[in-house]
């Protein structure tokens, strides 16, 4: 196993990373081995460019056969077999590159057309198929694997969280949303608000992709955080809003708490209990909060505008600018309903649309997060909404 993983790492060093749009296409038909997860195997199906988990030998064999393409014996014989010097019909092999072909006229035997040499490899029994897949597998990191989508519009790790891609009817208008729901009653749940800078920063601040925050904390879910300055060179990546850095146990921008313009704040203590402050001045600061409630803070995030408070749409129209009011962009929100956290990305929506969406979902409290090019959503080792740019803070969830 050590030799296998070492070989995989060597492959990675020379593996060219393409643009996001062409990434899955470059890996079409390949078997991918997650070098950071004990070499777990995935198959990138050429027909939809999505990855299918191969699991144990019996699982892998089943997936391969389900995705297999029937081939008549005349065409099958035109394909070169592994270990033979003849080239075979390369045009046919290229059309079948990366696919599993099933001999429909010979007991349904399965073969894999390896994209690197365009030869067919006999999959045989489950154990044989699994061995072939691993021998021909390409090593890949979790970060790069996350760029290739899994099939299906729904996914769930366990009873405490799930992901859905769906349409929602809001007063007669349909919106497409991606939504991750997380149950705070999960006894193993940890909520982490994370910042790139570990101290207040007003210019040339740090930022990183959402996957950086996720992978650093081995999180299963995450969403980008506050608004920030993305265009001004003088104040690049600066953000006004308070964000608690869970690891460092410090509140970035704590000096902004005294202003009414700072807006509402979401807070969680170390027992995953949620607290809402409609005005940052009510929160005061970390020390005051912990002494008053006799708990330790775990995570906190502020942003404007507020969307939902006590189940009501309380978006203040004069508190948003023209772009927030009129531009149809990807819009992000975090919401709370009883013991549930909702991470939402709505496509082609304004901020008022987003408020109505969160009201339709039925949350009790909701904050707007940075959207547009910043929008990113992660669940179960996959970008459900692909990132457009690095962000200075995020909120992620681990267990």
UniProtKB/TrEMBL annotation:
<dbReference type="Pfam" id="PF09992">
    <property type="entry name" value="NAGPA"/>
</dbReference>
<feature type="domain" description="Phosphodiester glycosidase">
    <location>
        <begin position="219"/>
        <end position="397"/>
    </location>
</feature>
<protein>
    <recommendedName>
        <fullName>Phosphodiester glycosidase domain-containing protein</fullName>
    </recommendedName>
</protein>
<dbReference type="InterPro" id="IPR018711">
    <property type="entry name" value="NAGPA"/>
</dbReference>
């Amino acid at each position: 196993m050590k030799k296998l993983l070492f070989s995989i790492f060597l492959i990675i060093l020379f593996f060219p990373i393409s643009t996001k749009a062409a990434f899955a296409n470059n890996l079409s038909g390949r078997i991918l081995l997650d070098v950071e997860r004990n070499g777990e195997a995935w198959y990138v199906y050429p027909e939809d460019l999505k990855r299918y988990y191969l699991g144990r030998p019996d699982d892998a064999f089943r997936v391969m056969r389900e995705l297999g393409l029937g081939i008549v014996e005349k065409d099958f014989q035109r394909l070169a077999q592994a270990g033979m010097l003849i080239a075979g019909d390369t045009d046919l092999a290229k059309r079948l590159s990366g696919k599993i072909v099933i001999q429909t006229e010979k007991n349904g035997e399965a073969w894999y057309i390896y994209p690197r040499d365009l030869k067919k490899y006999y999959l045989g029994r489950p154990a044989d198929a699994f061995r072939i897949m691993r021998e021909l597998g390409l090593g890949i990191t979790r970060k790069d694997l996350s760029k290739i989508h899994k099939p299906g519009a729904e996914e769930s790790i366990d009873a405490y969280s799930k992901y859905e891609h769906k349409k929602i009817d809001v007063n007669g208008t349909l919106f497409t949303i991606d939504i991750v729901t997380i149950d705070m009653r999960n006894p193993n749940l940890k909520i982490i608000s994370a910042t790139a800078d570990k101290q207040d920063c007003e210019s040339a601040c740090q930022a990183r992709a959402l996957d950086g925050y996720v992978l650093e904390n081995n999180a299963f879910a995450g969403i980008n955080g506050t608004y920030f300055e993305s265009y001004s060179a003088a104040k690049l990546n600066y953000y006004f809003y308070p964000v608690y850095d869970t690891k460092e146990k410090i509140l970035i921008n704590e000096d902004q708490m005294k202003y009414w313009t700072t807006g509402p704040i979401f807070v969680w203590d170390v027992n995953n209990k949620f607290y809402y402050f409609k005005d940052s001045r009510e929160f005061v600061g970390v020390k005051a909060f912990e002494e008053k409630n006799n708990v330790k803070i775990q995570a906190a995030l502020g942003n404007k505008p507020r969307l939902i408070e006590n189940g009501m749409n309380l978006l203040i129209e004069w508190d948003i600018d023209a772009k927030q009011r009129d531009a149809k962009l990807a819009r992000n929100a975090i919401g709370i309903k009883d013991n549930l956290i909702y991470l939402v990305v709505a496509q082609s929506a304004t901020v008022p649309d987003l408020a109505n969406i969160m009201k339709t979902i039925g949350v009790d409290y909701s904050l707007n997060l940075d959207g547009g090019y910043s929008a990113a959503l992660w669940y179960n080792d996959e970008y459900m909404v692909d990132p457009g740019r690095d962000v200075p803070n995020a909120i992620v969830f681990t267990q």
